[in-house]
Design goal:
By secondary structure, this protein is of the alpha/beta class. It is built from four helices and twelve strands. Strand 8 (123-124) and strand 9 form a beta hairpin. The longest helix is centred in the first third of the chain and has 15 residues, at 19-33.
Length: 185
């Protein structure tokens, strides 16, 4: 399956979820996250969900990270790139023109300071290659992270056998968390 085929197929599947299903599936993903030992990680980059796209609801994960005294970093798209925005516990957001929530008050931090990245995606293959929205924002960002930064994809769907059109600029995941399981690559 190519990235374009997977993107179309899984976007359509995800659109069919009700809000209740999104919340239930997101809660199951969150339960798996809570079982991971993050004691050696301090700074976490996590995306905010685009509700109209039925993305994984990450707000409970963000609150949990704050309660664990972790540093929370959110993405902010500027042009064709993304910056890392450290936020405080009661952060506020605005919706941009694409209905993507973005932090209002933040401190920009370097990608090398990040220990764990929760990556948005549609699906991954069994080698950890992921299919995102296709803009390349996360691959550019991950290229700036330190090599040992953990890359954890969050998705509703189990990994597929193979993504045919992976290229050298793609960054494979270390883990993928679905409602059913944690997959290690």
């Amino acid at each position: 399956m190519t990235k374009a085929e997977a993107r179309k197929y899984y976007r359509n599947l995800r659109k069919q979820f009700s809000k209740e299903e999104v919340n239930q599936l997101s809660a199951a993903i969150f339960e798996h996250i809570k079982t991971i030992d993050f004691s050696n990680a301090q700074t976490f980059h996590i995306f905010l969900p685009i509700e109209k796209n039925n993305e994984v609801n990450t707000y409970p994960i963000i609150n949990w990270l704050f309660n664990q005294n972790k540093t929370v970093v959110l993405p902010l798209v500027i042009g064709d790139d993304m910056i890392n925005c450290q936020v405080e516990k009661d952060f506020d957001t605005n919706l941009n023109s694409l209905q993507i929530p973005e932090p209002i008050q933040y401190t920009e931090i370097d990608a090398k300071a990040i220990d764990v990245v929760f990556v948005p995606m549609f699906v991954a293959d069994k080698k950890g290659n992921r299919v995102g929205y296709g803009g390349g924002y996360y691959d550019k960002f991950l290229a700036r992270c330190k090599p040992e930064t953990k890359k954890i994809g969050l998705t509703y769907f189990r990994p597929i056998e193979n993504i045919d059109d992976i290229y050298f600029g793609d960054f494979p995941l270390d883990f993928c968390i679905t409602p059913e399981e944690i997959v290690s690559f």
